[in-house]
UniProtKB/TrEMBL annotation:
<dbReference type="InterPro" id="IPR010886">
    <property type="entry name" value="Hc1"/>
</dbReference>
<keyword id="KW-0175">Coiled coil</keyword>
<dbReference type="GO" id="GO:0030527">
    <property type="term" value="F:structural constituent of chromatin"/>
</dbReference>
<dbReference type="GO" id="GO:0003677">
    <property type="term" value="F:DNA binding"/>
</dbReference>
<dbReference type="Pfam" id="PF07432">
    <property type="entry name" value="Hc1"/>
</dbReference>
<comment type="similarity">
    <text>Belongs to the histone H1/H5 family. HCT subfamily.</text>
</comment>
<protein>
    <submittedName>
        <fullName>Histone H1</fullName>
    </submittedName>
</protein>
<comment type="function">
    <text>Might have a role analogous to that of eukaryotic histone proteins.</text>
</comment>
<feature type="coiled-coil region">
    <location>
        <begin position="26"/>
        <end position="57"/>
    </location>
</feature>
Amino acid sequence: MNRFEQLRDFVMGLEADFKKFYEKGNKAAGTRVRKAMQDLKKLAQEIRVEIQEKKNQM
């Protein structure tokens, strides 16, 4: 469950930059969101691998 909390906290931390980009047109916030999305992709892949490893051990 720790991974879920990590994922949730990561996504919730992006809210301010999403609002700045979409509501105010702040380009720097858009750059931060794009970088964060790449980091999210990496985190998701790590979680996928971890789940597959645990599943294979069962």
